[in-house]
Amino acid sequence: MATTTYADGLEKTEALPVPSKLHEWIVTVDHKRLGIMYIATSLFFFAVAGVLAALMRAQLAFPNGKVLPPEVFNRLFTVHGTTMVFLVGMPFFAGLANYLVPLMIGARDMAFPRLNAFGYWMFLFGGILLYFSYVAGEGLAGHGTAPDVGWFAYAPLTERAFSRGTSTDYWILSIVISGIGSTASAINVIATIMSMRCKGMTLARMPLFVWLMLVVSAMVVMALPPLTAAQMMLLLDRYLGAHFFDTQAGGSAVLWQHFFWLFGHPEVYILMLPGFACASEIIPVFSRKPIFGRAAMIGATVAIGLLAVGVWAHHMFAVGLSSSSNIFFVASTMLVGVPTGIKIFNWLGTMYGGKLRFDTPMLFCVAFLFQFLIAGLTGVMMAAAPFDWQLTDSYFVVAHFHYVLLGGLLFTLFGAIYYWFPKATGRMLNETLGKWHFWLLVVGFHMTFDTLHFAGILGMPRRIYTYAAGRGWEGLNLLASIGVIFQAVAVACLIWNIIRSLRQGAPAGNDPWDAWTLEWATTSPPPEYNFAVEPRVRSSRPLWDLKHPEDPDWKYE
Amino acid sequence: MNSFSRVIGLWCVMTGVALGQTVHPVGNIFDPQATPAESVYHLSLLVMAVCAAIFFVVAGLLTFTIVRFRRKGNDGHEPAQVYGSNRIEVAWTVIPILIVLVLTMATARVVIALQNKSAPKDALQVTVIGHQWWWEFRYQDLGIVTANELHVPVSTTAKQSPIFLKLESADVAHSFWVPQLSGKTDLIPNRTNTMWIDPRQEGTFLGNCAEYCGMQHANMLLRVIVQSREDFEKWAGGQKTEAAYDSDIQVARAKFLSLSCVNCHSVSGTSASGTFGPDLSHLMSRGTLGSGVIPNTPENLRAWVKDPQVIKPGNLMPNMQLNARELDEVVSYLSSLK
Q1: Which residue among A62, A359, A428, B213 sits deepest, i.e. has the most Cβ atoms within 10 Å of its Cβ?
Q2: Which of A159, A389, A397, A557 has the most B C-beta neighbours within 10 Å, making it the best mutation to test the interface with B?
């Protein structure tokens, strides 16, 4: 592919005919292209799932809503949840890891480039399969098409007796297939980090981002097997007459819940840690200080990873487990607050005494800190099992986990887009549009999700397609639905910003943020081989060492 | 459905009035009316106070940092590079551990107190069976079977009367939640759970099924009607009698018993002994139809029997395609089941 340097200093590829261009992307095994494909696809699914959410909020804006019939609403929240977890959160992480890990550790590609491509295509086909169910899934008349069992699909609602037809099978298979993709990508990240680091890049000197990706990948490898196994058991139940979860034949409904949450809770941290990873890179650069308590941050991450496999039954406090098991899970869940707190304190410590620049990436990270603090504290409230008996399966939980995943994860991911977009494309995103995006999202987010906590406190259960007037929920629901408009406009600002900046964004240069990790040492976008010469590092901030030969980091290590 | 649902707000109050009852339509968990909900409320005050304190300290520090350390101008100098402090790390590890310890112990006390309470010998025991999408209540000791509206006696300081609920499910997982009385407990097939309530105030408390259970999860509504001891005894006495049999509706009764209604519904003292649907023996003593989806008025009853799928789409009672005469007869028979 021929490249030319233009007057504005950017290298541009000669225009290839569209089919050849497409062909290049389809057969690519380049970690950067696959990273971009992962992120673009997950943003696409994010937009789709956002539309589904907006439809649900339209239905719930007023009591006795007539926008959607019940079966359509039930499919919407099932597909919305499944999409956001498996087709937005997980692949966004895979995309970031793919794009950034090799660059940050000074490698030329991932350890297994073809496995990498395989992982992406599995994820994409899994995602397509889920949406294909809208066309091909069949069920009872009026119950058919897309799956309608909820994203955690509690047995025995998923058994043939209650979910006839094939829509539930689409759900099972799409998750199993995209899970194969996630596992492949996680193994690849682990192998890459373990074996491809450049000279001098000891584990202790790895950027925090890479450390967190290592922990997340290990968690994916640990957490996905119980889910895949459970899905297979469910398929056996449905088609070969096994009775794992078939209560009518003596199976156990609670067993499914154990299997699911043994995956599902680590999954929450699998989704959240990449957000932490981004914040841990962005906050220091915009505070102009190294991360405070690096070792403690790494230790806290590993601790979260380990604790994550011992807290699953806090999703099941209302199931009627014995008081002693409930108390065990109260203790283990509360304990997660400790390493999570350490992280927040260390980010705060990083900012304290710095010179804070509030560019868009940093704005998103600061909002993340406030919102994640609240999300963590409502999490502590629900860790108190009796309080959870009131709050679980109510709108309070809906508000809580949207605070975690939207107020926490999504804000950092948006920050990451503004931060690394210049590296991936060679052009800056527009700051003004970025600020519109940020402030509209903040307003919309709080309007929607602050209010929903109160709906839960007033007894509104989740997953209801309608509610009667007079139960104290009308005003809150209306406000929550209005908030969606702000959020939608905010996301539109982002999309417009990306489209516009791809064509006419200011040239970024190699290192627009004056940052310290290796990806900023190469060109933007990086060449296919990343680094012409293998870098050699002496500290965890190699570019700081270069920029400040008088006061390098390695002196203190 | 429009005409039905528009009046629902009003009706919440009206049906209560008809029963001589105050309705508590808002299930505010911070307005508890029974011991389990109140214990949770007290625990929640402690937990929220601790969380609020943490919030104000951390958010305050964050705000201070943002305001104080914002870069002023562009001086080009980097701030002092601080890498961390072990002393501070230890402090913000140990303090949260102590907070966690306190919260865990306070929580454990409430878990044990609520979950391990054993039933006094004379406690009223009710088996609650979740169905897609309605509630069955069986008072074994009293020989009563009813649906969707749980009648219980009020607890007074003079006479504590906790009611113990045995929770089971006939199909998929459901969850029993009346926020002002207690937190929720799931009803799971092939498993028996228990919970208890001791409501201290008379009135009708509204609740919902809180575990997604399929198409009409939203309309699996729940009402707990708390009555004075006398009113409860009176209600129970009425329920214990065999279903009414007026001689002037013999024809209608025969028609009802000849239709397939009896495959799913029971009426005591008749050949109708189906168990898929709610027991109809004393249908007219209930304030609502379709698990709380519409008030039990003559017009609504007729509309429901004519085509329940219009009122609660997807529910398991099909449109029986009754002709006008059959409809009249069935409705007049049902209306006689006081």
Answers
A1: B213
A2: A389
Q: Tell me whether residue A4 is in a domain.
A: no
Q: What is residue A5's predicted lDDT score, i.e. its pLDDT?
A: 53
AA identity, residue A320: G
Q: Give the residue from chain B lying closest to A394, CA to CA.
A: B210
Give per-residue pLDDT as tens, B247-301.
888 999 999 999 999 999 999 999 999 999 999 999 999 999 999 999 999 999 9
With an 8 Å Cβ cutoff, are B44 and A384 in contact? Answer: yes
Closest by Cβ to B28, choosing from A335, A352, A459: A459
Note whether residue A142 is domain-resident.
Answer: yes
* CATH code assigned at A521: 1.20.210.10
pTM of the model: 0.94
**Separation of alpha carbons A380 and B143, rounded Å:** 44
- Distance from C-alpha of A453 to C-alpha of B52, rounded to nearest angstrom: 15
Record: contact A70-B215, CB cut-off 8 A: yes
Q: What percent of chain B has pLDDT over 70?
A: 94
Q: Does the residue A329 lie in any domain?
A: yes
* CB nearest to B189's CB, from A253, A389, A393: A253
ipTM score of complex:
0.93
Closest Cβ opposite residue B27 in set A322, A337, A458: A458
CA-based nearest distance A238→chain B, Å: 15
The verdict on residue A5 lying in a domain is: no
The pLDDT tens digits for A352-385 are 999 999 999 999 999 999 999 999 999 999 999 9
Average per-residue pLDDT for chain A: 94
Supply angle C-alpha A404, A407, A412, rounded to 5: 100
CATH number of B124-240: 2.60.40.420
Chain B residues with beta carbon closer than 8 angstroms to that of A330: 104, 107-108, 111
Domain boundaries, chain B: 32-63+88-116, 124-240, 247-335
On the question of a common fold for B124-240 and B247-335, the answer reads yes
Q: Containing domain of residue A110, as a range?
A: 26-556
A56, A390, A462: best mutation site toward chain B, by most B Cβ within 10 Å? A390
Q: In the 3-class helix/strand/coil scheme, how is B11-55 assigned residue by residue?
A: HHHHHHHHCCCCEECCCCCCCCCCHHHHHHHHHHHHHHHHHHHHH
Using a CB-CB distance cutoff of 8 angstroms, which residues of chain B are in contact with residue A67?
Answer: none
**What does the pLDDT average to over A9-32?**
81
Q: How many residues does chain A have?
A: 557
H or E element, residue A447: helix A431-457
Q: Does A195 touch chain B (CB under 8 A)?
A: no
Q: Are A376 and A313 in contact (CB under 8 A)?
A: no
Structure tokens at B325: 């005469």
What token pair was written down for A258?
Answer: 């154990």
Provide the CATH topology of domain B247-335: Immunoglobulin-like (2.60.40)
- Looking at the structure of chain A, the number of domains it has is 1
Tens digits of residue pLDDT in A163-216:
988 999 999 999 999 999 999 999 999 999 999 999 999 999 999 999 999 999
